[in-house]
Amino acid sequence: MHLSTPMPTSDTPSADRVRRELAPTASERTPAQAIATAVEFRGFSAWYGAHQVLNLVDLTIAANRVCAFIGPSGCGKSTLLRWMNRMNDSIQGARASGGLSLHGLDLLGSALDVVDLRRRVGMVFQKPNPFPKSIFDNVAFGPRLHRTYSRTDLEELVEQSLRASALWDEVKDRLHRSALGLSGGQQQRLCIARAIAVDPEVLLMDEPCSALDPRSTASIEELIRELRETYTIVIVTHNMQQASRVSDTTAFFDEGRLVETGETDALFTTPRERRTEDYVSGRFG
Amino acid sequence: MSVGVAIPVARRTRNDRLLWVACLGATTLAVAVLSALLIAVFLQGVSSLDWHFLSSYASRKAANAGILAPLMGSLWVCTLCGAISIPIGIATAIYLEEYAPKSRLRSFVQLNISNLSGVPSIVYGILGLAAFGRCFGVLSSDEPLALGSPDSIFFIQLPLGRGILAGALTLSLVILPIMIIAAQEALRTVPKSLRHAALALGATKWQVVRRVTLPAALPTMMTGAILSMSRAIGEAAPLLVIGGVLLLFSVPENLMSDFTVLPLQIYNWAGRPQEEFHRIAAGAIIVQLALLLLFNSVAVLIRQKLQRPLQ
Question: CB atoms < 10 A from the CB of A239, how many?
Answer without folding.
Answer: 16
